[in-house]
Design goal:
The chain has 16 helices and 20 strands. It is an alpha/beta fold. The strands form four sheets. An eight-stranded parallel beta barrel has the order 11-12-15-16-17-18-19-20, surrounded by seven helices. It has a seven-stranded mixed beta sheet with strand order 1-10-6-7-5-3-4, covered by helices on one side. α1 packs parallel to α2 and α3 runs parallel beside α5. It is elongated and about 70 Å long. The relative contact order is 0.12. It binds acetamide. The site of acetamide (ACM) has 4 residues, from loops.
Length: about 525
Amino acid sequence: MALPSVVPAPASIEADGSAPFALASGTPIVAAAEIADATEALQSLIETRTGLRLDTREPADSAADARAIVLEIAGDGAAESYRLDVTEASVIVNGTDAAGLFYGVQTLGQLVEPAPGGWQIPAVRIVDAPRFAYRGVMLDVARHFHDVATVKAYIDRTSALKFNHLHLHLTDDQGWRLQLDSRPLLTEKASATSVGGDPGGFSTQDDYREIIDYAGARHMTVVPEIDLPGHTHAVSLAYPELSEEPVLSDHIREIVRDYGGELPVNGVPYDGMAVGFSSLKIRDEATYEFLADVLGEVARLTPGPYLHIGGDEALGTSAEDYDYFIGRVSRLAASLGKAPVAWHEAGTATDLEPTTVGQFWGYVEPIDGMDAKARGFTAVGSDQGKLILSPADAIYLDMKFDADSPLGLTWARGVTTARRAYEWDPAEVVDGVADEQLLGVEAPLWTETARTLADIDALAFPRAAAAAEAAWSPAAGASELRTWESFAARVGALAPLWTSQGIGFTPLDGIPWAVEVAAGADRGDA
Ligand code: ACM
């Protein structure tokens, strides 16, 4: 018999076809007051999906809890794990910890389905735990600025797929998006525009705290990125004395020819899409005074353990200067009490702070020594959790999903279909890296072409679900659910849930998108 659809695929799922649990307006949620967050998450998920607002009550004796949805935290088991037991008589969601309970609730929300005259939850037993501790999404708020409401919406959508880190790409050539008390000129002078001459914007510190709190309530840790030493043209608008002159390579001239826009000029806002022309002055102590202020303030504002220092595409910096800079700045981040994170190029730095985590953004089959750079991180310091995998030709969510869409780019080996986003395994990308050296998986979404939440939705969904499966689910081969055919059927079944939540996913070909005739109405065929 067909198993109920859950994405990302759980570690274990069994169903014997016995009678479902009938969900009705009188079904209570039984949960202790201390776990009100999980109760509220479930209430709102069920209400959005079905229109039913369930009441809650404190646990009584077990007999009184029959015909109820019971939420509880057990405290024993792997971090973030949960069990979900659905029978005709009851639904029990048992989290090892608060995060596990939250994920059990998300799974339960995916199981709710229309029944004749109402709603039901199919009988099922799920025992689930994540494959990787770090499951990230990245949102670029620099190429186009995205405000608190949009970031919160992205947190809602991605935490529901069991992602637990939100990497915010806060600065780039096109704008500086976080207000800093130590360096107020950055947002005063360098935040007004976005790519294509679109309006810019920035987050105040209150906005940033609001995002961190909202993410935390959904078990997501914010990872701030200040991209250095390249991708820093915006700094030249506020502190021209810290910026080298733009390096106008053939690549930059080609991008300007193909996509329009102007060549970058220091002190003038840049709204094109070229990369790799800017650099901070590497041999000037004023640069490090600036970075002590900037990284110090970002570290103080951020409760999470990570501080991303960028390091990608520093084509305007000599190899020797890059090496010196990355060593020094990775150690500065560590001295601020954070684990530095850097894109894979930084793995070449001879004096890299040993706790630095590398983020691989090469291809599933690496070319041009991308994998050797990534191995630089695993060669130093502890051998645990040193690499995050973000293969650009699989899970860069900003790549075009079909050739005709105006949204998205194609530089990462052309169009990235949902199938290509799905069919790769994190353990097989960088040779010579042991499984325990992998910290996890992150799906970035760069926003050169993404102006609105609707654009973000159209690019990210359904491919973010494929990335969630790489990050959470057992490896391909370790579960019969880990095939493209199974994924396509399961993700297609999420269409009514996503629609009820206002997620403007792209109904890509090759996925059987479920259509609900009239949710909750008598379908006659059931
Ligand atoms: C990157 O895509 N430049 C990390």
